[in-house]
Automatic annotation (TrEMBL):
Full protein name: Oligosaccharide flippase family protein
Subcellular location(s) per record: Cell membrane
Membrane topology field: Multi-pass membrane protein
Record's keyword annotation contains Cell membrane: yes
GO CC list: plasma membrane
Transmembrane segments: 12-32, 44-69, 90-113, 125-147, 168-197, 264-284, 305-324, 336-353, 374-393, 399-423, 435-456, 462-484
């Protein structure tokens, strides 16, 4: 049952995400052609500032999800209702804090803008953006019930449907009115619609929970606050490492450069988010696994998830590297191409970041927040210093390089050690040996495929892109089959997929 739900979540999350992303790329093209690349850069800056303001959330969501695993498994509806009520109260406080901080930041937003713009208009844009983003704090406190029950697909279904309609309307608005204000207002109205629908669905599916008398014991509340304190440090560290790049780029360069970077980032973020969506559906399954089985079984499952993580990331890495410039030319035009060295650094960062989900999901599912609470701050300090120094001399490339340096100095080492020690009760050396092996294979596939695809130069840019993409995908999968066909991990996923599509892997 656990595996069935995990697979269903992965498929639904992945398919719905791809559907929404395709139309989002059309929206982005219309956005840039209607409002210009500077407004595109401004939108990216707003997103970065909101990442800072969202630190007020303090990691409440993660701690609540972990706290719900046991009571949901035991059907302790009173405790579940108590935890959700606690979550609602904390998120209301966070939402108010975000709004107040947003109003406080608004008069100083021009600090990050070097371009000549009407600052009063920019401030109005930001306030609408602020309202849209902060609304989630007041309407999403019931969502953890679906996550912990492994029903992420319910969220994906409604969220994706609303987003598809929203993007179609926004494309029409941009074509007719060419107005950033109306674009943001439409975003807000559709988000409110989604919150209304998803809450109605949750109320109906889990009526027994909301009809219960909620209560939360002192021990549970103490654990919640302990994890919130630890997660708040993780959030601060995560923001400094991954959330400040746009602000620093805007400060050291300009909105146009930031817009170019953001276009490439949108492509890479598509794959970041797809990988995250696929792994998101596994968290509850892992949490249930940890509380119901032994260390050896849990470690065996991790090795399979880690292998899947590697295959997914290396496949994406090779395909993106070989096709991204070709895609941007088709999508936006030759004037929007970034320097190849910057793209390479972005993809190095992509690989490091996306080889984390396997270890991160086991860490989250096991509730390991307190033990490494100070390390994200160390990583953040290294990142801030490296980005400021390197950004000053190397511009965008320096800021990305600073992020890479900080990612490899602290969390890369600490998280696997903690998970292996506390969850698997074993040494993490095996993790790093596999990481080195996987990295070598990824680089070998990347360089060899890039050399071969450099000879693909057809008359049509679109055909060149398609042929390069198809070749890259087939090439990577052939290498996987040749190298791993006799391993337990490969056999497991091959049989799993064949069984799902109704084909027996046993020979007659």
């Amino acid at each position: 049952m656990r595996t069935q739900k995990a697979f269903k979540n992965m498929i639904y999350n992945g398919l719905f995400f791809v559907l929404v992303s395709i139309i989002t790329f059309f929206t982005k093209k219309m956005f840039i052609s209607s409002l210009g690349n500077n407004t595109n850069g401004l939108n990216s800056l707003f997103s970065s500032i909101m990442s800072f303001l969202n630190l007020a959330e303090l990691g409440v969501g993660g701690s609540v999800i972990y706290a719900l695993y046991k009571p949901i498994q035991e059907k302790n509806y009173s405790l579940i209702k108590g935890i959700i009520s606690f979550y609602k109260k904390m998120y209301t406080y966070s939402g108010v804090a975000v709004i107040l901080l947003g109003f406080a930041v608004t008069p100083f937003i021009n600090i990050f803008i070097k371009d000549q713009m009407d600052i009063s208009k920019v401030q109005v844009y930001f306030l609408i953006y602020l309202l849209n983003t902060s609304l989630s704090y007041f309407f999403t406190y019931k969502l953890p019930i679906l996550y912990v029950n492994q029903e992420n697909y319910v969220i994906s279904k409604y969220d994706s449907s609303i987003k598809v309609i929203k993007n179609i309307v926004q494309i029409g608005i941009l074509y007719i009115f060419r107005s950033y204000v109306i674009f943001l207002v439409i975003e807000t109205l559709f988000n409110i619609t989604y919150y209304f629908i998803i809450n109605k669905v949750i109320n109906k599916r889990y009526k027994v929970i909301f009809d219960a008398t909620g209560s939360i014991d002192i021990a549970t509340k103490k654990d919640l606050f302990k994890n919130i304190k630890a997660l708040s440090l993780h959030k601060i560290g995560g923001f400094v490492v991954f959330g400040t790049d746009s602000m620093l780029m805007s400060y050291f360069a300009n909105l146009n450069i930031l817009g170019l970077y953001n276009n490439y980032l949108m492509v890479i973020t598509f794959f970041n988010s797809l990988i995250a969506k696929l792994f998101e559906g596994l968290v509850a399954s892992i949490g249930n696994l940890i509380v119901s089985t032994n260390n050896e079984k849990t470690k065996d499952v991790f090795n399979k998830v880690y292998f899947f993580n590697f295959c997914l990331v290396s496949f994406c890495l090779v395909c993106i590297y070989n096709t991204i410039n070709k895609f941007v030319i088709i999508w936006l035009g030759k004037d929007f191409i970034l320097d190849r060295n910057i793209v390479t650094l972005m993809l190095i960062n992509f690989y490091i970041l996306n080889m984390r989900p396997s270890i991160d999901r086991f860490k989250e599912a096991a509730g390991i927040y307190h033990n490494d609470r100070f390390f994200p701050l160390i990583e953040a300090a290294i990142n801030f210093v490296a980005c400021i120094i390197l950004g000053r001399y190397l511009g965008i490339a320096g800021i990305i390089l600073g992020t890479i340096i900080s990612s490899l100095t602290v969390i890369f080492w600490i998280r696997p050690i903690l998970v292996y020690k506390l969850v698997f009760k074993s040494n993490a050396l095996e993790y790093y040996i596999n990481y080195a092996k996987y990295l070598f294979i990824s680089l070998a596939m990347l360089f060899s495929s890039n050399y071969i695809t450099s000879f693909i130069n057809l008359k049509s840019n679109f055909l060149t892109f398609v042929v390069t993409g198809i070749f890259s995908a087939i090439y990577v999968n052939l290498i996987f089959i040749i190298l791993f066909r006799k391993t337990d991990e490969y056999s497991y996923f091959k049989n799993f997929i064949l069984n799902k599509i109704g084909i027996s892997s046993k020979r007659k």
